[in-house]
Amino acid sequence: MNEHADVEHEALLTEAKQAAAQTYSPYSEFPVGAALLTADGQVIRGTNVENISFGLTNCAERSALFSAISQGLPPRSFKAIAVYAPKVPLISPCGACRQVLIELMAPDAVVVCQGSDPALTKVWTLKELLPGAFDSF
Q: What family, per the record (predicted)?
């Protein structure tokens, strides 16, 4: 990992932590924040938004990505996403998020994940997180 990537990842994690503070998670009390980095350097935040009918809940990763696309950013114009959850030592995207992210971000996009223990921070590509994904690319 190069120094520039480390600095970029730390900045993205800071944004994800700020997003986690905006969560709506009254049922699980499990805040998650995400920060999506666009190709041109913009950061789009997302947080988990729960519903009493859990199937209608939206994860932070998808909230950030759907927000970016609804703002007019084209699919596959994203470099990285950071995901942060303060109540577990390490977090990673759920299976549904992995599938959505790999299709809308691209297989080589970077995923930076951190929980309450920064020493456990992980950096993956989406194709590492979801080998053999359903794909349309």
A: Belongs to the cytidine and deoxycytidylate deaminase family.
Cα 79 to Cα 8: distance, rounded to the nearest angstrom: 11
8, 61, 103, 128: which is the annotated catalytic residue? 61
Cα 106 versus chain centre, distance: 13
Structure confidence by residue, pLDDT tens digits, 7-59:
899 999 999 999 999 999 999 999 999 999 999 999 999 999 999 998 899 99
DSSP-derived secondary structure letter, 36: E
Contact call for residues 84 and 64 (beta carbons, < 8 A)? no
Q: How many CA atoms lie within 13 A of 76 on its CB side?
A: 7
What's the confidence (pLDDT) of residue 99?
93
Alpha helices in the chain (DSSP H): 3-20, 60-70, 95-105, 126-129
- Burial class from Cβ neighbours inside 10 Å (0-12, 13-18, 19+) for residue 29 reads exposed
Q: Is 32 left (phi over 0), alpha (psi -120 to 50) or beta?
A: beta
| Residue 61 falls in the annotated catalytic set | yes
Query: If you search the block for the tokens 């950030």, which residue do you land on?
Result: 64
